[in-house]
Write a structure and sequence with these properties.
Length: about 240
């Protein structure tokens, strides 16, 4: 598959912002409003951007249907690239915790396979990307559109349910963005006119972002605008 330069550029910017966000440690954020605002702005959109791009690249492959053997091969490939690194770091880290008696074996296994309270929380990305990638291959083109609406609705409902697990929120949210990426490339029938497609995507992405800000920042405020601007940029790709 031929590489698309502007995808690489956007992905590179996303990686740089991710590194910058991790540099904004708690001590720096507590001492500077600017650092805290920068941190919030980056974390409101950078992971959604990665899933959107991943979905767009999947859509570019033009995969409409896979045979049983092709699905197994695809799952094996994703397990090697995403599952094995996740399990390697998880079992390696938790083995130390079990030996030092900081965690029980049963508790460790639960945290590894659910990611809840995982000692390496930031590798949730591998876990979620693996399952999102697998879910998508079992959806045909018509089902993807329905799944986009369902996953977006599920994210809205789950966001306001008491006792919601973080992984369920992540799976619903990032499945939505992954599927949006696929739909963006495939130009589904609901998005026939380019202008209408762009406006609708901006509204959908901005709405999800404002919801996220409202949930975790109390009320929508200026810190959500970098996220909305990013959506405009994503939806403006040729």
């Amino acid at each position: 598959m031929k590489r698309i330069s502007y995808f690489d550029i956007v992905r590179g910017i996303g990686i740089c912002l991710s590194v910058l966000g991790h540099c904004c440690i708690t001590e720096l954020r507590s001492e500077s409003v600017i650092t805290q605002s920068l941190y919030d702005g980056i974390y409101f959109f950078h992971m959604s951007l990665f899933f959107f791009l991943a979905g767009t690249l999947y859509g570019k492959k033009g995969i409409t249907k896979m045979s049983g053997a092709e699905k197994l091969q695809y799952i094996r490939k994703k397990f090697c690239s995403l599952g094995i690194p996740y399990l390697f770091y998880s079992f390696g880290g938790y083995a130390i915790y079990v030996v030092l008696k900081k965690k029980t074996l049963s508790a460790s296994l639960i945290e590894i396979f659910t990611t809840e309270n995982h000692i390496f929380h930031h590798i949730w990305f591998l876990y979620v990307m693996f399952f999102v990638s697998i879910i998508v291959i079992f959806l045909n083109r018509k089902m993807r559109l329905a799944a986009t609406v369902i996953s977006g609705g599920a994210f809205i409902v789950i966001s306001f349910l008491p006792g919601t697990t973080l992984i369920s929120l992540y799976l619903a949210k990032y499945l939505f963005f992954y599927l949006m990426g696929i739909l963006y490339w495939e130009k589904d029938q609901i998005f026939v006119q380019n202008r209408f497609r762009t406006i609708l995507r901006i509204l959908l992405f901005a709405g999800m972002d404002i919801l996220y800000v409202a949930k975790y920042a109390g009320v929508p405020d200026l810190s959500g605008f970098p996220l909305i601007i990013n959506r405009v940029i994503c939806c403006s790709f040729p």
